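Honest question from a wet-lab person: if I give you the sequences of every part of a complex, can you actually get the arrangement of the whole thing, not just the pieces? Trying it with mine:
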Amino acid sequence: MTSTAIELELRGVGLWTPGFADAAAWSSRHVQGDMSAPDPGAQAPRAELLPPMLRRRTSLLTRMAAEVAAQAIAAAGLERGRVTVIYGSVYGEIRTTIDLLEALLDPAAPLSPTKFHNSVHNTAAGYVSIATQNRGGNAAITAGRSTLAMGLLECAGLVAAGQGPALLVIAEESLPEPLAAGRRYGPLAAAFAVDAPGSGNMSLRTCRLRQGERAAAAAVAPLPEGLRANPCAAALGLVEAALRAEASCVALEPQRERGWLIELDEQPARARGPA
Amino acid sequence: MLAAERMRPVPITAYSLCNAMGMTTAEVVEALGAGRSGLGPCPPEIGLVGLGGAEPGRIMVGAMPGALPALPARLAAYDTRLTRIAALAVAELRGPLDRARARWGRDRIAVLLGTSTGGIGESERAHAYHHVHGALPPGYSVETSHALDASLPVVCALADVGGPAYVLSTACSSSAKVFAAAQRLIHLGVCDAALVGGVDSLCQLTIRGFAGLEVLSPAPCRPFCSERAGINIGEGAALCLLEREGEGPARLLAVGESSDAFHMTSPHPEGLGARLAMERALQGAGIGPADVDHINAHGTGTRQNDSAEGAAIAGLFGPGMTVVATKGYTGHQLGAAGATEVLFTVVAIAGGFVPMSVGAAPVDPEIAVRVTTAREVMRTRAAISNSFAFGGSNVSVLVGAP
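Yes, you can. This is the full assembly:
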C-alpha cells in the first residue's frame, strides 16, 4: 500500500440528520448514551438551495444533499456555481426505486417518467446543478461502506488536477422494506469542502489522507443508536472531529482494520470560535 | 475549476468488450468492422411481459448473445446478471492484469467502474417474489444483489487488484466519467494503473422507464437518420487498463466534463453543455478542434438529443467533422455505453478506420455534420467520444494515437 499522504485544506463542513439542523448542533450534542433529537423542530432539511416547487417534489435524499451542500459552501466561503460537487451515497434514491419496483408488479402499468429520472444516482447532482447554475462537472459515486474514503480521494484527485475546490456530499436515507429485510437506521447527510493546501485563508483545518491501521484513529464519540448502522455513519465522526479544536485522526473505513484515515491538524486560532 | 492543470496522457494498454455484438472482444471488434448490428428481440429471461400493449418479443434490445456463466463459488453471493457480464470482460484481461500487477503491485491498481443499473434486475425478481411469498427469495441481499457497488468485490477479486475502488453512477455518462477519475488518481499518485470501464444489464426498470419517457423505438434505433424514432436499451461490459507508462493501441489524452444546468432529461437545445465538455477536453489536452479527426457521438437515436449534439459538434468543429454513432450496433448500454464507445474509438484508431453508423442512412439533412454511412479508411490522430446523461451530465473523452 502507498505510504504517501495527500494534503488538503478542509474549508467547511455541513450536516443534517433528524434533530440536528446543522454541523454546530451536531458537534455540541450531549453524547451520553442514546438521546432523542435535541431539536424536535429539525425534522426536515430546509434545502433552501432548491426552488420551493422542486423542494416539494424531490426525495429526502436530494433535500438532505442540497441542505448540507449549501451549509458547507457557505462555511467555506465558496461560490455555489463554481465548485465541483461529488455526491456519495450507497443506496441513493432507494425510496423512488422501490416505488418503481412496486409499479413494475403490474405488467401493463406505465412507469412515471418523473420517478424514473428521479431514481438515478445523480438525481441530487442534476437538481443542484440546475438550481445553482453550476456548469462544472459533478459525479455521483458509491463504494459501500468505503464511500466516504473514496469520495475524499475523488475530491483530492480533482484538487490535484486544478479542478477544485471540490465539495463531497454524503447522503444516505433509511432503507425501506421489503429490500431492507430488517436493516434499520436513520437518514443522515454531511458535506466537506476541500481545496489545495494554502489555497486561502478560509481553511477550517489542514488535513492529510493516508492509509494505515484503524487503531491509529481516535475514538469517535458514540453515535445515536439509530444512526450506527447507516453505511455512511463514518461521515458523522469526521464532522465532529473537524469542529473540535485539537488534532485528531479519523478512520474513514471503520469496517476495515487497515484502510484510509484522515489526520486533522490542530485548528488554526483564527478558525476557532462558534462554528 | 477553470484553471485546470494539464495532466499527462495515460496509455490504454489493454481492453475487453462484450455486448450484443459478441461474447468476446474479437467478436465485437469483427462486428464493428463489418457493420453488423447486434440488436434483436428482448430475451424472455428479462421478464418483460408487456409494454403498453406491445408484444414482449417485439421489443428491440441489445442483449448478450450467449449464455452467461455463473461466478465461481467463492463469489456466489454476488452472482447476478450484471456481475456475470462483468466477469466475462475481466477474464479476457487476465494476461495484461498479471503483467500490470507484477510491474506496479497489486495495491497500486485502482478499479473504477460505471454502472447505472447495478443489480436492479435481481431486485425486480426479489420484489415480485416478496409480493407473492411475503419474504425475499433465498440468496437475495440488498448489499450483494442490489447495490451499485456490488460489482466491485467481484471485479477486484477476479482481477486480483487492491487499489482504491469505487463506482461512478451518473446514468448514461457513468462509464465515461471513470476515465476522468482514473487520470486524476494516477496524477494524484494514489495508483499507477487503473482497471476502468462500465457494466450494465438489461432489466425491466430501464426498458419500461424509457418507454414511459416515450423515447423507446420499436425498431432497431437509427441515430442521426431522418427516420430516427428513439432508442433501444442494451447491455454489456467494457473494461480497459490505464497505466502510468506502457505501450498500447491508444492513449487517454484528456476528459472534459460539464453540466447543462438546464433540465433533468432534456439536453440544452443548442447543446451548450455538450460543447463545454468537448471544449474542456481539448483544453485539457492542449490541442485545437483541427487536431481531432472524428467523433464517436452519444447519438442515441432520439430526435431531440441527436439534433442538439449535431449542433454542438458543428458549432465547435465545423460542418465537415466526421461523426460516427454506434448505438445501432449495441443499443444504448446506459451505464456501460461510455466506456464501450471510448473503446470503439480505440478500435478505430488502432484499425485505421471509422466504423459505419449502422442505421444512419438516410442522414437527417438538418444534422450539420458528416455522419458515416459506410466504413471509412481513416488515420485518426485524436478522436472524441461523447456521453450525455440525465441530470445534464456531459462527458467528452479525448483519445489519441499512441
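Two things worth pointing out. Residues 60-76 of chain A form the longest helix (17 residues). Chain A touches chain B through 70 residues (CB under 8 Å).
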